[in-house]
Amino acid sequence: MDTNEILTLFEQSEAMLTGHFILTSGRHSDRYMQCAKLLQYPDAAEKVCWELAEKFKDMEIETVIGPALGGILVSYEVARALKARSIFAERENGVMSLRRGFALKPGEKVLVVEDVVTTGGSVKEVIDLVSSYGAVAVAVGALVDRSGGKVDFKVPARFLLELEIKSYLPEECPLCKQGIPAVKPGSRKI
Question: Domain span at residue 170?
Fold first, then answer.
């Protein structure tokens, strides 16, 4: 798939929103990538996730992990394409954790995936979690990098879409200064 085909899938599913949004990071933006709108369609989810998986097919990935909620479906479909195991991390008392009987083995090769990367905070927490088990986060993948390539994960990172979408600290947000109400479509409380 080329970039235009991927963008078309996002547009058709109304996954690219415009308005005034509070991002998971707490920053504000006039655009929001709601990948759940795309991932609700299994055929589209398979297409984009398998395309992402292609970028890692030569890395001998044993397990794919994503942060809940956005990374769960991405982890599952990428793992399916790579014939690997899929697990997810979730917050417990504010800390990214493995629950539900999930565990990692020392030396296990792990791919960390996410739907959208803005600051990379959740992904970095998952990388730290993987390391805490002695497993190795060999790479990071996401459907969308909205940072414009500004996040350094200290491992190779590959994305389907790389967009530079401006985001602002709340006190610097021009939309707030205009009095435009903000909405928080994400899944994590600030």
Answer: 3-177
